[in-house]
């Protein structure tokens, strides 16, 4: 048994050292937000955050995760209380078939955590490893900008509450 | 003062003056008169087209068009052991480019590394190779460059330490290392071989990267094509010391130089990606000639390289036992593509065929494992994810050690962790300053063929 920290919780997992993280997330922990697309690290749909960095979970074996924090889309927000990145994607209607979107959201989240006001160019460059055949790219771009604004106001809210109301 | 002392002093003074005069005579070059920028319409279009192909073979844009800059406007920092040298503006801008250079001035720069004003140029500009370029080809290159869009971009000051900041020192360097002879064909060889030799030794300046350099930065004649350095990459040996598990042939070289990959060797990346990108657009006959000559330079491999052998299985088992971490990473992160049996460029090369693993220098492998190979927009190109975000230096080191033990018969690399740490640091810089995509683009038309 190995210990795996996902979304703030520790799980005891019975997996080989060379098992890809994606398989453990989906098969053992039933966290199905990260998607199996190509299994080769080429499409981006399996992207999760490990210690603040976006990684392709289909090519990250368990042996690399000792002592690290994994965050999946389930760890950002819930249906009742979606995180800013999730709200932004819904409000911009950025998903069509939606298969690639969890991966896109995770990499966008990692980007916004280190750069709170990315330019169009930076977002495009960052999301370059993600394939989407539906063609909502422009909406995705808008959604990431919207998420940046939402996060900004979310940070500002407590102060605003205290002073203005 | 006694008479004999005076005589000695006189002789010393005379020798010193003579030496100064000689040094001046050796180092001094006259300026060539400035001209009014020629009308682009005055150049023959066929000549301009030929110049375009030649500029691609010469890979001029790699140094003279840094990423994000305008075509041929210069400004690429080239780090050398003596300091940083910046590439210059070779657009026909009259003030900051070569707009006021006559063809004679251009030819002198190519032949002997002297600019129009008479200053010696640093051999970062590979005139030690360009001295072999024919007058005709210089004329075509001149026509091509003088018909480009002029860009106003002043050259940046070089950052060199004394005495290398003295251009006089370059005159001394040239005395030692520049052989200003035009290329002479070898009548015993075929026309194709001679064409290849002319290009490889001249304009294509392959040795500038693939030949190691001496303490003064000149190519070591005795170690021609024995492997050298370029940016943060190792340019492999392409003579009989090549560590490629399968020996190169002219056909394999032709495919590789034309398309950016070959099933027995893998994918061109790093600085070589720009080279093949340029070569994919020139006449096939010239690439074929380069391949024929280079294959004859490679000759027969020395070190009993036989490719994947019977003891490969035993090696694989041993490597897994001694390095289980590396083995696990390989299984999950690498094998799905590299053992998938899918043909290149979409599948990964069989790592038993990879020169980056059998090479004495692990930098190329570290670079590609950490940064991957980006797909080229709009093209069917090789692709590999980078692993910098998912592996720390220890883990990457375990993986590289495993690959070395399993897929080559070579001893473990020394200082591997330092190489990986350096690659992690410099790769970030390289990505920002690279003049080119880091991957292997190729002519889409080539890719359309089955």
Produce a short descriptive summary.
Chain A has 165 residues and is of the alpha+beta class.
Give the topology:
The complex is a heterodimer of chains A (165) and B (450).
Chain A: E1 2-6, E2 9-13, H1 21-28, E3 47-50, E4 53-56, E5 69-71, H2 84-91, H3 101-114, H4 120-126, H5 137-164
Parallel strand pairs in A: 1-5
Antiparallel strand pairs in A: 1-2, 3-4, 3-5
Helix pairs in contact in A: 2-5, 3-5
Chain B: H1 3-27, H2 45-57, H3 60-64, E1 77-80, E2 83-86, H4 103-112, H5 127-130, H6 135-146, E3 159-160, H7 167-177, H8 191-201, H9 207-210, E4 228-230, E5 233-235, H10 250-259, E6 261-262, E7 266-267, H11 271-279, H12 284-298, H13 312-322, H14 324-338, H15 355-358, H16 363-371, H17 393-407, H18 416-433, H19 444-448
Antiparallel strand pairs in B: 1-2, 2-3, 4-5, 6-7
Explain this structure.
The complex is a heterodimer of chains A (165) and B (450). By secondary structure, chain A is of the alpha+beta class. Chain A is built from 5 helices and 5 strands; from the N terminus they run E-E-H-E-E-E-H-H-H-H. Chain A has a 5-stranded mixed β-sheet, with helices on both faces. In chain A, helix 2 (84-91) packs across helix 5 and helix 3 (101-114) crosses helix 5 (137-164). Among the domains of chain B are: 11-177, no CATH class; 313-433, Cytochrome c-like domain (Cytochrome Bc1 Complex, Chain D, domain 2). Chain B is 46% helix and 4% strand. Chain B is globular. Residues 430-450 of chain B have low confidence and may be disordered. Chains A and B meet through strand 4 of A and helix 14 of B.
């Amino acid at each position: 048994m190995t210990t795996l920290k996902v979304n703030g919780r520790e799980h005891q997992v019975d997996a080989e050292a060379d098992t890809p993280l994606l398989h453990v997330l989906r098969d053992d922990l039933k966290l199905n937000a990260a998607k199996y697309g190509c299994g080769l690290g080429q499409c981006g749909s399996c992207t999760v955050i490990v210690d603040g960095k976006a990684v392709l979970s289909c090519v990250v074996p368990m042996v690399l995760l000792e002592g690290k924090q994994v965050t999946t889309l389930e760890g950002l927000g819930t249906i009742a209380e979606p995180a800013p990145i999730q709200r932004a994607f819904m409000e911009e209607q950025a998903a069509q078939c939606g298969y690639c979107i969890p991966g896109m959201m995770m990499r966008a989240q990692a980007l916004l955590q280190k750069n709170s006001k990315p330019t169009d160019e930076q977002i495009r460059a960052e999301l370059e490893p993600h394939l989407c055949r539906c063609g909502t790219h422009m909406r995705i771009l808008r959604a990431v900008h919207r998420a940046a604004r939402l996060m900004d106001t979310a940070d500002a809210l407590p102060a605003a509450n205290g002073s203005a109301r | 003062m006694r008479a004999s002392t005076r005589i000695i002093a006189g002789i010393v003074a005379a020798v010193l003056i003579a030496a100064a005069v000689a040094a001046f005579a050796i180092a001094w070059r006259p300026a060539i008169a400035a001209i009014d920028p020629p009308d682009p319409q005055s150049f023959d279009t066929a000549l301009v087209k030929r110049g375009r192909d030649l500029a691609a073979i010469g890979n001029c844009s790699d140094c003279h068009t840094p990423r994000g800059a305008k075509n041929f406007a210069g400004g690429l920092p080239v780090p050398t052991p003596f300091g940083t040298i910046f590439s210059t503006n070779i657009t026909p801008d009259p003030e900051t480019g070569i707009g006021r250079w006559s063809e004679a001035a251009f030819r002198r720069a190519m032949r002997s590394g002297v600019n129009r004003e008479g200053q010696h140029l640093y051999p970062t500009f590979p005139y030690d190779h360009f001295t072999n370029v024919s007058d005709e080809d210089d004329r075509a290159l001149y026509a091509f460059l003088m018909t480009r869009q002029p860009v106003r971009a002043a050259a940046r000051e070089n950052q060199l330490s004394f005495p290398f900041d003295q251009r006089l020192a370059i005159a001394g360097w040239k005395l030692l290392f520049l052989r200003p002879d035009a290329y002479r064909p070898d009548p015993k060889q075929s026309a194709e071989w001679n064409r290849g030799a002319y290009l490889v030794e001249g304009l294509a300046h392959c040795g500038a990267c693939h030949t190691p350099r001496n303490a003064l930065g000149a190519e070591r004649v005795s170690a021609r094509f024995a492997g050298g350095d370029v940016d943060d990459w190792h340019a492999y040996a392409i003579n009989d010391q090549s560590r490629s598990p399968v020996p190169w042939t002219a056909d394999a070289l032709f495919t590789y130089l034309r398309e950016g990959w070959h099933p027995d060797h893998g994918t061109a990346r790093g600085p070589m990606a720009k080279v093949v990108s340029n070569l994919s657009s020139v006449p096939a006959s010239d690439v074929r000639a380069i391949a024929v000559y280079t294959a004859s330079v490679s000759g027969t491999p020395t070190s009993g390289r036989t490719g994947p052998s019977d003891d490969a299985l035993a090696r694989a088992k041993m490597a897994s036992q001694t390095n289980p971490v590396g083995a696990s990473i390989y299984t999950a992160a690498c094998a799905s593509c590299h053992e998938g049996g899918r043909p290149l460029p979409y599948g990964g090369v069989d790592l038993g065929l990879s020169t980056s693993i059998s090479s004495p220098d692990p930098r190329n492998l570290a670079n590609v494992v950490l940064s991957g190979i980006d797909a080229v927009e709009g093209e069917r190109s090789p692709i590999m994810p980078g692993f910098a975000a998912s592996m720390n230096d220890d883990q990457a080191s375990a993986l590289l050690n495993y690959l070395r033990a399993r897929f080559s018969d070579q001893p473990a690399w020394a200082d591997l962790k330092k190489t990986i740490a350096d690659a992690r640091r410099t790769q970030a810089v390289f990505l920002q300053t690279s003049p080119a995509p880091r991957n292997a683009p190729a002519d889409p038309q080539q890719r359309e063929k089955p």
